[in-house]
Amino acid sequence: MRKWLIPVGIIVVIVFALYSWAKGVNNTAVTMSEGIKEAWGNVETSYQRRNDLIGNLVKTVQGAADFEKGTLTAVIEARAKATQVTIDPSNITPEQLAQFNQAQGGVTSALSRLLVTVEQYPNLKANENFLKLQDELASTENQILTARTRFNEQVKPYNTHIKTFPNSLLAGMFGFTEKAYFDAVAGAEKPVDVQFDFNKTEEKK
Fold first, then answer.
1. For a pLDDT cut of 90, what percent of the chain falls above it?
2. Which residues have CB under 8 Å from 87's CB, separation 6+?
3. What integer pLDDT is reported at residue 189 of this predicted model?
């Protein structure tokens, strides 16, 4: 056997091993990245459903002629602001996700105030359409929470994969970057503070 074949064979084995490793790092990251995109699509779908329900809710509440316009306007403005924030799922940065989270948190806060304020309006509380929308919103909030949780569950193994040595040596070269996680909305743990005008309430009775 020719001696020069031994080093050539070693080189071939090393090159093949490196190729297989690089291929595995890349293909696994691609698969995980696609999973993140799918999970993000479910997040957006859940929020879009909430936006659609809010539109119907606003129309129903507007039927109460003496309902606080400020509370209703806040919901409309928060919803409009949230729909303006878009994110590319292939390049979700912490800053983008924080902006999205803040905008959607504004909708949640305004919507919570609206639903609490409705307690002053017996006609609305007894309105069949409003009650149905309220139930659907509650269900949608649960769907949003589930979608956000599943998104984080997709992000974690992806980030671990590209940040773990030696995969980290190639991840950047292949264009894979760390994805951001959903965090709790700041102030979400605080109860909604609404000041009722009980004198006005008594006048309506």
1. 55
2. 40, 96, 97, 100
3. 41
Quick one: average pLDDT of 91-102? 88
Q: What DSSP assignment string belongs to 157-185? A: HHHHHHHSTTHHHHHTTTT--PPPPP-PP
Maximal CA-CA distance, the chain: 106
Alpha helices in the chain (DSSP H): 5-62, 69-83, 94-117, 122-125, 128-163, 167-171, 198-204
The answer to whether the beta carbons of residues 75 and 111 sit under 8 Å apart is yes
pLDDT of 60: 86
Global confidence as pTM:
0.81
Measure Cα distances from 40 to 7, 33, 91, 179 in Å.
49, 10, 11, 12
Place of tokens 């004198």: 199
CB 39 within 8 A of CB 92: no
| Cβ–Cβ under 8 Å, residues 152 and 71 | no
Domains parsed from the chain with CATH numbers: 5-204 (1.20.1440.20)
